[in-house]
Design goal:
This protein is mostly beta strands. The strands form four sheets. It has an eight-stranded antiparallel β-sheet with strand order 8-9-10-11-21-17-16-14, covered by helices on one side. This is Methane oxygenase PmoA. Pfam families: DUF6807. InterPro entries: DUF6807.
Length: about 350
């Protein structure tokens, strides 16, 4: 990093201290309320909760599809629901327009392996999928899992081509008096083949994505990127962070501040979203940080590649200056749990 860049980051970090960005625990009332994040596991999901309020669930079991839908759309290894601190559900899975959309998830799209195209995202193509393989550990505030990226072969078989170690960690916070969940998602990808895997340049795939709540439709939903872009002019632009927000039928507003770590590929990372007239004019909300949006990516045999993201989840609204400072703290310190 050049001297000017270091100087700017030093100034911003000093501003963070002045504005007391460091998180303080949320006050959660009620009998036996606790401020620590608990990890629980049942037959279908691993759930993070705090003081009796759920933060998110990660599905380790294969989720069935609605009756009459092609079973190839089944999958595991995704986050849903993702909750706001007040209990609003911010994600959606298996919408009829895109049965392969699963809350918050990140499969790769146009991938080439041994000269053959494999799509892990569009499950209806029956070329590949991503699945939960094992729970590695439960830790204070989170968990670590092993996921497999699976290629379906022409002969009807399958082979695992990418191993992924995915860590999800959460904490409770209060930012400018607003309760918030802080969710860190970090993944390490490893090509386990003897040949390179090419992730082609494509408008969506990988990174971190969200299919937002059904209620989040234009004009009641939008994005704001660190560069001042919205959902109608931000596609393919680069961003350090991006607020994705929407209103519910009761008029309340919730938001998710997505942050990309400076060590991520292509940082500031390209973003992709549906515009306000997307999905037949319904204006549904889909957003992602997409590291292959502008350039292809080659995964070399045996090499490991890490992507790190943070979500700050809240009800109400944060100002732009605060969101920049929150990103700066993430950029300087990686995750609060490390």
């Amino acid at each position: 990093m050049n001297m000017l860049g270091r100087h700017i980051r030093t100034i911003l970090f000093s501003a963070a201290a002045l504005f007391s960005v460091f998180f303080v625990p949320v006050s959660i009332s009620g009998p036996n309320a606790e401020k620590t994040v608990k990890v629980s596991k049942n037959d279908t999901a691993i759930t993070l909760s705090c003081g009796g309020s759920k933060i998110l669930s990660y599905h380790h079991a294969v989720h069935p599809v609605p009756e009459g839908v092609d079973p190839s759309y089944r999958r595991s290894g995704f986050i849903h629901p993702l909750y706001s601190p007040s209990g609003k559900v911010l994600t959606r899975i298996q919408p009829p327009d895109h049965y392969h959309h699963y809350g918050s998830w990140a499969p790769w799209t146009k991938t080439h392996i041994d000269g053959r195209e494999v799509d892990f995202w569009n499950l209806g193509k029956k070329q590949g999928t991503v699945r939960f393989a094992e729970l590695i550990s439960k830790e204070a505030g989170g968990f670590t899992v092993h996921q497999e990226h699976v290629e379906f072969t022409d002969s009807g078989g399958e082979r695992v081509v990418i191993d992924e170690i995915l860590r999800i960690h959460a904490s409770a916070a209060e930012i400018d008096g607003i309760p918030a969940w802080i969710v860190d998602v970090s993944g390490t990808l490893k090509n386990i083949l003897d040949a390179a895997i090419i992730m082609d340049k494509y408008r969506y795939g990988g990174g971190i994505a969200i299919r937002a709540a059904k209620e989040w439709k234009a004009p009641g939903s939008n994005i704001l990127s660190s560069e001042g872009k919205d959902r109608d002019n931000g596609r393919a632009s680069r961003a350090r962070w991006c607020e994705v927000f929407g209103t519910f039928d009761d008029g309340t507003r919730s938001g998710i501040l997505f942050m990309s770590h400076p060590d991520n590929r292509e940082h500031p990372e390209p973003i992709y979203m549906w515009d306000s007239k997307a999905n037949g004019g319904r204006g549904d909300m889909f957003f992602q940080f997409c590291p292959i949006h502008l350039n292809p990516w080659q995964l070399n045999p045996g090499a490991e590649y890490k992507l790190r993201y943070r979500m700050v989840i809240y009800d109400g609204k944060l100002n732009t200056e605060r969101m920049e400072i929150l990103w700066q703290t993430f950029a300087e310190h990686q995750t609060f749990s490390e």
